[in-house]
Prior knowledge:
The chain is of the alpha+beta class.
Amino acid sequence: MRDELRNLDREILISLFFDSIHLTLLHYGLWFKETEYQIGLDKAIEADGRVWKRILPAFISRFARRLKIPMKDGTLQLLAELSKEDLIGLLEDMGKNWLGNDGLWFQAVEQNVDYTDEMFTAKRINDTCWTRFAYIEAKTIMRRLNLSENGGIPALKKALKYRQYALINKQEIVEIDENKIIFRMNDCRVQSARKRKGLPDYPCKSGGITEYSRFAEAIDPRIKMKCIGCPPDPHPEEWWCAWEFEVKP
């Protein structure tokens, strides 16, 4: 195989490298999806935690060895020595990449589905994805922050601050009492971009209801969510959407 690869141009070899990364991510996702189907979402999340804990150090060490990048404290030296501000900036870049991925998938479905209402089809897929992603994201945050199960409103408040959205949007939490909060999205990157282009609000309420209810459920099944307002609902200038969370017996 090496002899075959040596006959290729550098540009093709680089493209094959990124194809390999792409295929690895797709294969990882397919394993997760089928594990969820066979034994359930919670078991799939547990398996993902075990796999990622083992595979990430292997990925890092192989790349470091091949690219001759020094290691420090179990990670790439260039990451270990970045300032906190640069690390935060890198996280913000990852949040933008995550959101771009979401938006491009929506557009790809919307533009290539042979149905009368392409947006309905894209929204249906989007909402279905959120039933899983919001739950997985919450469990991942809980694992990273060592949040206990059934942690109520305190755990939810903490977890909401570490979502991918929190890296790129402006949000606030209004405390009503120890068992109830209101969460508001003050600046939404997607909606603000549409507003700058003179476009109407994107009607994200159905996806939001799925997303926030599933996120809260993962943190603590006792937490119930109520939508205060989300496009296409009218909303004030100071927020795009708002959600009430309350612990109920």
